[in-house]
Amino acid sequence: MNAAVEDLEFVSVTKRYGATVAVDAISYRFRPASYTCLLGPSGCGKSSTLRMIAGHESVSDGSILLAGRDISNLPPAKRGTAMMFQNYALFPHLSVLDNVAFSLKMQGTDKVTRQNQAREMLELVDLTDLADRMPDQLSGGQQQRVALARALITRPQVLLLDEPLSALDPFLRVRMRSELRKLQKELGISFIHVTHGQDEALALADDIIVMNNAVIEQAASAREIFNAPKTRFVAKFMGGHNVVALPSGHFAIRSDAVQVTAPDKGHIEGHVTSVEYQGTHVSLSAQITGDQEMTALIPDTTFLSAPHHPGERIGLNWDTSNQHKLTA
Ligand code: ADP
Ligand code: MG
C-alpha cells in the first residue's frame, strides 16, 4: 500500500482543442519515484499531456490523480508538480539567486529563508559560485541548471520537463542527460520528461511511454520497449530492428541479433545489397523474399574475418528468442 502513495495516474484522460483530439482517452499509472519519458513524433500529444499534469492546460475528459487525489482542476501551484520549460526563460533583471528564490517570494516566504533555500538548490545543481550573476552572464547549460533549481525549490513530488535538452549542443546534451538522471535519483521524486529522441529516452528513462496519434502505443521499461516492441510503429521508431513479414505474421528482430550464414544454413535466404562500415559494427543489408530488406549489424572483427560483398547469396540466422511478434 505504501509504495502506491505517490502514484501519478491518468484515468482515461482526453485533451481536445476544438475539433482536434490531441490526447485520446489515455490511462496509465506512473511508477513512484521513477524517471519516465514521454516519447513520440512531433504532434503526437506529448506536450499537451505534460501541460495537463502541470495544470497549464485543462483536461477535456477523464482525471489525473496524484497520491490518490484528483488534481485535474487544481491551480498549478497547488498540485505538487513543477514544470521546467523548453525555453527556460529566466527573469533577465533578477540575479541567479533571486530567480531561484522567486516562487518562494510569491508565496510570502521571508527573505533569509528563501535565500537560504535558493542557495541549497544552487548547490544541488552545482552553481553555488554563480549566485550573484545575471542570466545574460551565463552559458546555455548554466541557464538551464538555474531553471532546474527554480523548479525544484517548490519541492514538487513530480518534476515535468518538456524537451529540456533540445536547445543544447550535442556535447552538453549528453552531459546534462546524466546530470538529470543523477538528480532524479538523489531527490527520489518522479521526473516526467518529454522528448522526440529515442536515444535520449533510452539513456534516461526507467519507463518509456511511446505515443503516436494521441494514444499510447506501448508503455514499459526502457529495456522492454527497445528489446520487445509490440507494434510496427514502436519497432521502427526505436530503430535498430528489422520489421519483417514472415508466414506466421509480422515480427521485430533486432539487427544486432542477426547473423550471416551460408545460403542454406539460415532461417531465410537473400542477397547482399549493401555493406556499410560504422566503426564498431558493419551494417549489412540483404534483400529477402517479397521485396523485403533485412539488416544485420555485425561486430567489425567478425565481419572482417569473413567479409561479404554486394550481390553475394547468403543466409540470415537469428535465435528465435529474439523474434518478437507485432500486434499491429
Ligand atoms: P507534441 O508535444 O507531441 O509535439 P502537442 O501536444 O503539442 O504534441 O500537440 C498535439 C496536437 O494538438 C497537435 O495536432 C497540435 O497541433 C495540437 N495542439 C497543440 N496545442 C494546441 C493549441 N493550443 N490549440 C490548438 N491545437 C493545439
Ligand atoms: Mg511538444
Structural description of this entry:
- 28% of the residues lie in helices and 33% in strands.
- The chain is an alpha+beta fold.
- It folds into two domains: 3-227, P-loop containing nucleotide triphosphate hydrolases (Rossmann fold), CATH 3.40.50.300; 240-325, RNA polymerase II/Efflux pump adaptor protein, barrel-sandwich hybrid domain (OB fold (Dihydrolipoamide Acetyltransferase, E2P), Beta Barrel), CATH 2.40.50.100.
- The chain has a six-stranded mixed sheet with strand order 6-7-8-3-9-10, with helices on both faces. The protein has a five-stranded antiparallel sheet with strand order 13-17-14-15-16. Strands 2-1-4-5 form a four-stranded antiparallel sheet, with helices on one face.
- Strand 15 (281-287) and strand 16 form a beta hairpin.
- Helix 2 (96-106) crosses helix 3 (111-124), helix 2 packs parallel to helix 4 and helix 3 (111-124) crosses helix 4 (140-152).
- The mean pLDDT is 93.
- The structure holds adenosine-5'-diphosphate and magnesium ion (MG).
- Adenosine-5'-diphosphate binds at residues 17, 20, 22, 40, 42-48.
Bound molecules: adenosine-5'-diphosphate, magnesium ion
Label the overall shape. elongated
* Major β-sheet annotation: 6 strands, mixed
Distance between the termini: 35 Å
In CATH, what is the homologous superfamily of the largest domain? P-loop containing nucleotide triphosphate hydrolases
Radius of gyration: 24 Å
The CATH topology of the largest domain is what?
Answer: Rossmann fold
Give the number of helices: 9
CATH class of the largest domain: Alpha Beta
Structural class: alpha+beta
> Low-confidence stretches at least 5 residues in length (pLDDT < 50)?
none
Residues in β-strands, percent: 25-35%
Number of domains: 2
Strand order within the widest beta sheet: 6-7-8-3-9-10
N-to-C SSE string, H for helix and E for strand: EEEHEEEHHHEHEHEEHHEEEEEEHEE
